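Supplementary notes for students who missed Thursday's class. We covered one full example, reproduced here. Read the sequence, then the structure, then the short commentary at the end.
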Amino acid sequence: MTDASEQRGALDGLFVLDLSRILAGPTATQLLGDMGATVIKVENPKTGGDDTRGWGPNYAKDNDGQPTDLSAYFMSANRNKQSIAVDLSSPEGQDTIRKLAARADVVIENYKPGGLEKYGLDHATLLAAHPGLVYCSISGFGQTGPNRDQPGYDLMAQGYGGIMSLTGAPEGAPMKVGVGIADVMCGMYATIGILAALRHRDATGEGQHIDLSLVDAQMAWLINEGCNYLTSGNIPERRGNAHPNIVPYDAFECSDGHLLVAVGNDSQFARFCDVIGAPELAADTRYVTNLGRIENRETLIPQLAARIRTMPKADLLAKLHSAKVPGGPIHDVAEALGSDQAQARGTVVEVPRGDVAEGHVRLLANPLKFSRTPVQYRRPPPRFGQDTDAVLDTLRDENSG
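Structure (token representation):
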């Protein structure tokens, strides 16, 4: 068997020029880097680099105990990259980017639409010079449409795209998801689009431009609720932890905390009722089918909740598992990342970095488990501009050759 350290990544040899910042673009380029691509992250020397370097309060500390520019937020999306400080507004900086683009398979950027045209670094210019290039543009609203010039942040995308109207308590205010999920999912779509465009390029020699927006991506993953509306014309509403299409599928209060119940079919419901000592509910014609339970959730849920409220959490979970009824705990982040399942799956990785106090940084692992081309953590998240000289030296070597 080949040692993992000797195996090539699935994207080994791919060169990615990353002009993006914050979360959506960096998520995509980190994924590409995890799979073996060489990623050169370009950061603005006028601003101190990627905005998220300053998004504390949590930072890796140096060997003297002082905060570095490696914020936890920045580190979440920037491993397996080299950082170079380049001023795109200067002729010298633009020349550097053009030289790197000539070597690149992929360019990814998240400037406002048209923002790179004045530098001659837009997709039309670079694709004309390099027809095999895959150029991905991420913006708030896309390259077209009445809102194309509006700035895009995750919060605005969640609001504009509808997900906030579905998140939160039924009588509460609209609520964003607890992490930047619109950004992250946009980065996922970008990765998929880039890989598809590369397959087309490898088959035909033809590159292309990918136009992706936070709002487009967010609307795309409205999934069942989006299709619920398109099918019925009824505007979906907030249900807290409940589900619009499955009952019971919710968080319930036990005698000593909360747990989750996710009954996915009618036979599971019958077993669930036995577990909580309410077989009569499974026999009630109003609740026998999922459709009936949806139509009568207002009478069913209070009865289930009253039974569950008297039961200890651990005891109920054990009984649910024994009866093969889906149920589970509600972990905080420490419990989730410290769980036996997370440890068994390698959910947290320690990546060596000699200039921080602990000698490594702890990161969330890539969840992909490849049998032949495993994900590798070759580089920790970079300090601002740390690789500038090394990367620019390669350009000078090419010119001298």
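Commentary. The two ends are 40 Å apart (CA to CA). The mean pLDDT is 96. If anything here is unclear, bring it to office hours.
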